[in-house]
Amino acid sequence: MRPTKPILLLAAAVSLGAGVALAASGDPERARILDGYAAQAKAQTPGFAGFSAERGRALYLGPHAGGKVADTPGCASCHTRDPAGTGRHYKTGRDILPMAVSANPKRFTDPAEVEKRFERDCVNVLGRACTAQEKGDFITFLSNR
Amino acid sequence: MSPNRSFRPLTGIAALAMLAATAGATFASEFERVRPVTHAATQKECGECHMAYQPGLLPAASWTRIMDGLQDHFGDNASLPADTAAAIRNYLTQNAGNGDGRLIRITEQRWWLRKHDFSPSIWTRKSVAAKSNCEACHRTAAQGLYEDD
User: What angle do helix axes A28-44 and A4-25 make, rounded to 10 degrees?
Assistant: First the structure.
């Protein structure tokens, strides 16, 4: 029964991942979002070994080159270097609620909202789409903040 | 209270006085009314980055151009899921006002320029930041009430 083994392994990996995500994120909805990115990352990135808050921090702070918006070389450009603080839109001055889950527990609990923001702001800051691993790293970093 | 903070009301009054001096001479002190935004998705999605401008502030052709170009929205990628974008486009164009449909900036419409014919230095104030920031001077702009003083 060759096909069974990979399926079992996959199921084990997914359930293990789910436990890790829930523990790391502290919210079932956020855990589901992270699990989704983990599954994508496994498929996209060979040797994917879980998300890293440290990589997420580097992504958040930047500076990055090649973004669509020259004024925003990092997420921190609008969200400030302290993700628990209130951000400010670089052009309009509009307040942005904190990114850190500790300061804003609703962050990363609406999958459509999360995808919408990544879709836009990865282009604005990086000049390209983010990988699933980057998205998971980012959420992991801010979940611990 | 920091000295900085106690200063704020004074600078606010100074700004108002200056606005009154420059604009008040030509325009009666009254509210200009625009129908407020009544569409939840428009309020939410447009209002995340700037005041959700009332549909009556631009003609339908301008809104159409704006909604066609969300991937490059005044320099930012502001793309939306297709169904949300379609609902917002529909609301904006159905409730649009008059003006030059070739222009997508409210602040380039002729009526807007006529009403904001004062010193350019106002726009560079920190409290104003950008011409798009209606609420810096019109405190009730988000409700569609633009005081004209």
Answer: 130
Is domain A4-143 in CATH 1.10.760.10, yes or no? yes
Q: What is the pLDDT of residues A49-106, one digit of tens each?
A: 999 999 999 999 999 999 999 999 999 999 999 999 999 999 998 999 999 999 999 9
Tell me the per-residue pLDDT of A30-58, one tens digit each, with 9 for 90 and over.
Answer: 999 999 999 999 999 999 999 999 999 99
Q: Does A128 touch chain B (CB under 8 A)?
A: no
Q: Choose the mutation target among A110, A116, A121 for the interface with B, i.e. most B CBs under 10 Å.
A: A116
Question: Are residues B1 and B48 both part of a single domain?
Answer: no
Token duo for residue A22: 């829930």
Counting one residue from chain A and one from chain B, the pairs whose CB atoms sit within 8 A come to: 38
B77: which DSSP letter? -
Interface of B with A in 51-110 (CB under 8 A): 51, 74-81
**By the CB < 8 Å criterion, does A106 face chain B?**
no
Same domain flag for B3 and B47: no
Strand partners, B30: B148
